[in-house]
Amino acid sequence: xxxxxxxxxxxxxxxxxxETLQETLEALGMSQADLAERTGHTPKMINEIIKGKxxxxxxxxxxxxxxxxxPASFWxxxxxxxxxxxxxxxxHARLEEHVKWLDSIPVSDMVKWGWIKGFKEKVPQLQEAxxxxxxxxxxxxxAVTESLGRQVAYRKSNAFTVDNGAxxxxxxxxxxxxxxxxxxxxxxxxxxxTLNSVRNLTVEPPEVFQQKLPEMCSACGVAVxxxxxxxxxxxxxxxxxxxxxxxLIQLSLRYKSDDxxxxxxxxxxxxxxxxxxxxxxxxxxxxxxxxxxEEEANRFAAECLIPxxxxxxLVGNAPYSKAKIRELAAQLCxxxxxxxxxxxxxxxxxxxxxxxxxxxxxxxR
Length: 365
Hints:
- By secondary structure, the protein is of the alpha+beta class.
- The chain folds into four domains: 3-96, 434 Repressor (Amino-terminal Domain), CATH 1.10.260.40; 99-148, no CATH class; 156-303, no CATH class; 306-365, no CATH class.
- It has 16 helices and six strands.
- Strand 1 (3-5) and strand 2 form a beta hairpin.
- Helix 1 (17-28) crosses helix 3 (43-50), helix 4 packs across helix 5 and helix 15 packs across helix 16 (336-345).
- Residues 1-7 and 155-160 have low confidence and may be disordered.
């Protein structure tokens, strides 16, 4: 039996087109020497073609068409298929030496979420993973990850403390999903105005905001994607520019509550508006980023969600009852959980209080 890999069949043995040529000559009662004489080639050349040592060139296929009355396209296709199958068999053998690389990425989780297909055999699984990451072989993995790492806005002395393979898979999934979103060219003024409208989505259920948020942002040149967090990524969001006119905001549900989700979104939006287009920003407790830019993005998110003047009014009106929290949230057209999260973050409300005002989210599989 052969191996079926991503809808491509690799036979256990590959016959050269020369075998078909020899069968044709026998059916016509023609010798190799006769064919050599009729095509103007040496008997040695004809023999090498029949044995698969020499290819049937496009010119030779035309000559065979005239001599044998079999279309040149037939010989060209036969030669192409033979060389491709031969190359795939050789590639399969080479990849067998690299299957250990699969241990460096979360294959089972990627299969579980439907990011890649699952295969029982190692080489087909390896090929599927390589297609997902867009690399020819594991030899290119280090170069690609190092290139990405140089773009991440770290603090000077820090690097990843998370599972590198899982994080790369999560980022790649966001990139692939974003490619499917058609965006207008980025326009900062329009994006800023849209963020005011996005606040209203914080009171909506996931089935609404997961559709509306990407639609609204794509009109400004920003692709928004929701990608489940993989184990050991410890990431809540990421921002980067895919092209000079298209930005990407990628969100997970790491903390699974509305205050964290929406703060993450506006935080990433802050990076887009305030910071350069060369850096990649990845948010997570175990990922150390540029302090100044992170604080700037934090302030931007906080002000977008709860303007300082409104927040100070609430703070000056302690204690913070659920009724007061709901009242401010209604005035600002935001979810009450966002107000709770802000007060808890600032140490003005115990982390055990008012959590019933927060909405909890869970990924549907």
